[in-house]
Amino acid sequence: MARYFEFAKHGTTFRKEIIAGITTFLAMAYILFVNPNMLSGGELPPDVKQGMIDAGISFPSFSAVFTATAVAAIIGSLIMGIFAKYPIALAPGMGLNAFFTYSVVIGMGIPWQNALAAVFISGIVFIFLTMFKIRETIINAIPPVLKHAAAAGIGLFIAFIGLKNAGIVVANPVTFVELGSFQSKETLLAIFGIVITALLMTRKLNGAIFYGMIITTVVGIIVGIINGPSGVVDTPAAPETFGALFDPLFSSDFFTKDMLIVILTFLFVDFFDTAGTLVGVASQAGFMKDGKLPRAGKALASDSVATVAGAVMGTSTTTSYIESSAGVGAGGRTGFTAVIVAGCFFLAMFFEPLLSVVTPQVTAPALIIVGALMASNLAKIAWEQLEEAIPAFLTIITMPLTYSIATGIALGFILYPLTKVVKGEAKKVHWIMYLLFFVFLFYFIWLRE
């Protein structure tokens, strides 16, 4: 095992990889509850959901999507770990699940079975793009400054998520955001977790992020902020969503204009979310070589196959998770980290009641600390070269402000060719960047609502 994953080459050990895998899992365990709640319509008020059902809009069950979410994460993380050998975990992606439910099922009135078929097709298209190295070529064509910007932007993005989950940053109808109340016990617990984790990191303790989460959880239970688990073991539900996509997929009226827009949107968002995540996590772990990602094709194939498998099981698009950076921050450097994550998701199917102690206040410190680590990529940007610095800044700042990695990348990619052309350095820009310029313009003008 150590030889296959090259522990010695990467300066890691079984202990480090296991801690990293558990850390990543804990940082992304929320998806086991958020995704089923989202796809089953659980985020809707009961009367609104009932009104949707009365109008003929149905939703898959929470228990079925819970199992589908876990299985998709297991398959994706195993392939990424064993095949691509990266410490990157996969699961159904946030944002895409909201688009699946609110835009496609509710907004467009498309049955959830048809929406799953659209996810399935996007995954198949990704597999072919990966086989012919189109996705890898595009990623390698991205200039280093935008890769550094993507990594730093993701750092700010996940730190913002952490601050939001902690209640340190809250919504304000006038100023959009403001400082939260420090009288909230949950917020104080998250702040305690940030301080403890920061102190452990300062002491350079291996697995500091993981230990910080454990200490925060224990303290939260002791003082009564976090409820103890209601149970330990439960039998996973059978996913009745399994294979639900095939009937609509082979119907004669499936490929409508609306469905093609849905498929293209799934393709667009997942493509650049995955690209940004891979580059960001790989940069943090020191995997990038000459601005390129080694084994990029294998990493991209992993998320493509996982998307197909997830759709068959009954969940929205499966993608690489930015929370993997928490595991990298805890010392994870090989695919064995992702294998551990897969094992944790497998166990989670049976220990659903026990996971109730992993609250957003517990994971928030990990996201904030890792965001600080990823922000170090800011130092790699030549800020005095404005033709590169301004597109990079736009990429960085719009990720947290629009709550979208893909949007930040798109806006930066639109501006970059323009500034380089005006600078007189048009020939230094890869032709693919010019192609992406028009692709992103097309997306914002005609596809994005």
TrEMBL record:
Annotated localization: Cell membrane
Species of provenance: Marinicrinis sediminis
UniProt name for this protein: NCS2 family permease
Keywords, ordered alphabetically: Cell membrane, Membrane, Transmembrane, Transmembrane helix, Transport
Residue ranges of the TM segments: 18-39, 59-83, 90-110, 116-134, 146-163, 183-201, 208-226, 259-283, 334-355, 362-383, 389-416, 428-446
Domain of life: Bacteria
InterPro entries linked: Azg-like, Azg-like_bact_archaea, NCS2
Membrane protein topology class: Multi-pass membrane protein
Family: Belongs to the nucleobase:cation symporter-2 (NCS2) (TC 2.A.40) family. Azg-like subfamily.
Classification via Pfam families: Xan_ur_permease (PF00860)
